[in-house]
Amino acid sequence: MKKDFSKKILKFSLMVFVVGFIFFGGAGKAEAAITYVGGQVGGFAGITTATTVTFGLTGGVASVPASGDLVVVSYTVGSTVDRALTITGGGVAYILVGTELYQNDDFDVNLRVGYRFMPSVPETTVILSGTGSTADAGRYTIHVFRGVDSTTPLDVAAVTAVAIDSRVANPPAITPTTAGAWVYATGAAASATGGTYTSSNLTAFLAGTTADTNDAQIGSGYFVWSSGAFDPAAFGGGGVTLSNDSWAAVTIAIRPAVAPTITTPTKTSITTTTAVLGGNVTSDGGSAVTGRGVCVGASANPALDGNCFTTTGT
């Protein structure tokens, strides 16, 4: 993508100003770092029809996702059979991470993890399929991230684990490769009587359990990675584990968007009252740039809240 822009700037002093390019904040802008927007957790007793969950995020910078934000949903069902789960938004299926996990025991865990980038008009809800039986409880977590590479959101392949005879979810270790990547891990279990997980290694850890004949419990959170392998480790809490329980877990690495690339700013036709400023955005860094422009000032790195002139669009 390559776009030119220029703007005549009036009423500046006689000195030659330093021109700086900026990429203005807001949803959908290419970021150089990931931001946690917020999350939520909930559940419902067994139901055979779809459940609509309205976004009500807490713990981050916003209560609802914005355009370009990455929404990660983990949805688990406690059952005695292999269920087919779905996660959708705006009539579009969330992209499945790896494969839907199933572990067979007396109480069978089903776990589906999906993600979706919010469109230009952000969705306000996510729709979870029915649990498959009025005896099968459902539980979910939602985590929303900003500044994620929209072309390759998963830095490396997801890793998964399942086990029988236990409810102690143990998300596997992962080794990201891109500086600034974050790790997201989720674990779930099925049992006769669920409990609430804890984690000392994950931030914004959301957990809970929903009761029915077949209980469902889940816990999910993130870690700001710096180097090497990261092991989320086995969750704490979760109630008393029994030999007829089962669990499943998924760990992913989220890749940050690359900062946009620009050409050297230009300044021509300088007079005592006007100048023509311009430049090119030669790469969007993997995320849509919805605002661009120039700032002027009497010294280097002019303030973004000063004399700035913008143009919008993609």
Task: Map the helices and strands.
Layout: E1 3-8, E2 18-22, E3 35-44, E4 51-54, E5 70-79, E6 87-89, E7 92-93, E8 95-96, E9 101-103, E10 108-117, E11 125-128, E12 138-146, E13 159-164, E14 182-191, E15 197-198, E16 203-210, E17 215-224, E18 236-237, E19 246-254, E20 261-262, E21 266-268, E22 276-283, E23 291-297, E24 307-312
Antiparallel strand pairs: 1-22, 2-23, 3-12, 4-11, 5-10, 5-12, 6-7, 6-11, 8-10, 9-10, 13-19, 14-17, 14-19, 15-18, 16-17, 20-22, 21-22, 23-24
What does this protein look like?
With 314 residues, the protein is mainly β. The protein has strands spanning 3-8, 18-22, 35-44, 51-54, 70-79, 87-89, 92-93, 95-96, 101-103, 108-117, 125-128, 138-146, 159-164, 182-191, 197-198, 203-210, 215-224, 236-237, 246-254, 261-262, 266-268, 276-283, 291-297, 307-312. The strands form 6 sheets. Strands 3, 5, 8, 9, 10 and 12 form a 6-stranded antiparallel sheet that branches. The protein starts with a strand and ends with a strand.
Mean pLDDT comes to: 87
Taken as a percent bin, the fraction of beta residues is: 35-45%
Helix-strand topology string? EEEEEEEEEEEEEEEEEEEEEEEE
Multimeric organization = single chain
* Secondary structure: number of strands: 24
Helix content: under 10%
Query: Radius of gyration from the CA trace?
Result: 24 Å
Report the major sheet.
6 strands, antiparallel
Ends: how far apart? 9 Å
DSSP summary: helix tally: 0
Q: Sum up the overall morphology in one term.
A: elongated
pLDDT < 50 stretches = 1-31
Structural class: mainly beta
